[in-house]
Every structure is written in C-alpha cells, then in structure tokens.
Design goal:
alpha+beta; 4-stranded antiparallel sheet; 34% helix; globular; BMC_CP; Ethanolamine utilization microcompartment protein EutL; bacterial microcompartment
Length: 227
C-alpha cells in the first residue's frame, strides 16, 4: 500500500517520505454532493487531499480528526499505486474530511499535511529502496482509525503494511511477539498490491508488534529464498 520509490542514496531503514499532491476546500458544498456523501447539516464544508502514499495518508486523516472538528467522510486507495496514477496530482489515495466551516476543515488539512510530510512514513528494507514497509505505532486513535479498526477512540494500534509475503510473515511474527490481537486484516493483494493489518493492544504491546514486524520484513529482505 505504498508508492514504491527507488532512491539513489537509500540505505536499510531509511525513511521514505510521502508527498501531498493536491488539496482543496469547498466552503459550502452543493446539496447534491451533501446527499452523495450523506453529510449532516453541520458538515457544509469539505476538504480534499491526495498524496502518493495511502497508508501514511490514512494515519494523517486520523490525526486530522484529533486536531479539528472534522470527520473523515471518504478515503480510498487507487488501484496499482501511485506509479500508475490517473493524473499528476492523483497519487495513490484521496481523502475527504467534512466540518462545520472552513476554519475547522483547513486546520484538519494542515494537520494531515504535517503528518504526511514529517511524521508517519514507510521505511526501506533494502539498500535501493525497492522494498518498502510500514510499521507505525498509533498511540491513540482518532475518529477515523477507531472506526476502521473497530476499536474505542483513543486506543493504540500497530499499523502494519508490507508486500504480500513479507506482510503475512510479519503479521505472524508481530502477533507472537506481543499481547495484541488482529483488529483489521488486509489480505493481499490490496488495491496497491500490499497486505497487512491493524493490531490492537496496549501502547507498549503495539510498539513491540511494530518492532517484530519490522524485523520479519528485514529477514525476508536479507534471505528471500530461504525455507
């Protein structure tokens, strides 16, 4: 679920930073659009964002719900990933948030952008950046990931994503390493040909699960055809 990027000076565990590609705020959305998105009367304003990494963006959208009076009303990955995007500003994902007015929605988008560009990120599992994975600790969920993971708001999650085999190997390792449970499972292939899931437990347990997942992915990267 990542825009796989091969970088010139990439090393193992280097951060692969995502990019925001486009944003727009509609101060007063048309009634026809309100009906399509099933918005309430106090959700007259919407904000849209696209980026080149879907999982990073989902974390960012969740953070937006904690930073402002907004709700994520739509968030979808595009098929095949950002390398096969439909346009230069499409990327890998679109997220739409709604709130009572432009101030809240703008604040939500600004927080999302901050997370995408400076906080949550994929990492490289090999020297050229051609194998990327996401092992991100969500210390306390907001409105979006709480619903997606079917956990109470404020709960901790280990958000784990990798290519198909690496993801399944890593998920098993993460579950064995800590007192966590599967909250959501992404069987490969996803829209972007990745897999993984959300694991739930205490913050310490979720951190241990992230570490175990990372180590499992690195193990596959180092010895891919060992049985």
């Amino acid at each position: 679920m990542c825009y796989l990027k091969e970088e010139d000076d990439m090393s193992v565990l280097d951060e692969i930073r995502a990019k925001v590609l486009a944003t727009r705020v509609i101060a007063s959305v048309d009634q026809g659009m309100m009906k399509q998105f099933k918005l309430s009367e106090n959700q007259r304003c919407i904000g849209m964002i696209t980026a080149d990494s879907d999982d990073v963006t989902y974390v960012a959208l969740d953070e937006a719900t904690k930073a402002a009076d907004v709700e994520v009303i739509y968030a979808r990955s595009f098929y095949a990933g950002a390398a096969h995007a439909s346009g230069p500003f499409s990327g890998e994902v679109i997220g739409i948030i709604a709130g009572p007015g432009p101030a809240d929605v703008t604040a939500g988008l600004e927080r999302a952008r901050e997370v995408i560009e400076h906080e949550a990120c994929f990492k490289s599992a090999n020297e050229d950046g051609s194998l990327a994975f996401f092992a991100h600790l969500v210390s306390a969920t907001g409105g979006y990931l709480s619903k997606a993971g079917n956990v109470p708001r404020g709960h901790s999650l280990a958000y784990l994503i990798a290519p198909p085999l690496e993801a399944m190997f890593g998920m098993d390792a993460a579950l064995k390493a800590a007192s966590v449970e599967v909250a959501t499972f992404f069987a490969p292939p996803s829209e972007t040909n990745y897999g993984g899931g959300y694991l739930t437990g205490s913050q310490a347990a979720c951190k241990a699960a992230c570490d175990a997942f990372q180590q499992a992915v690195l193990d596959v990267a180092n010895r891919p055809i060992d049985i």
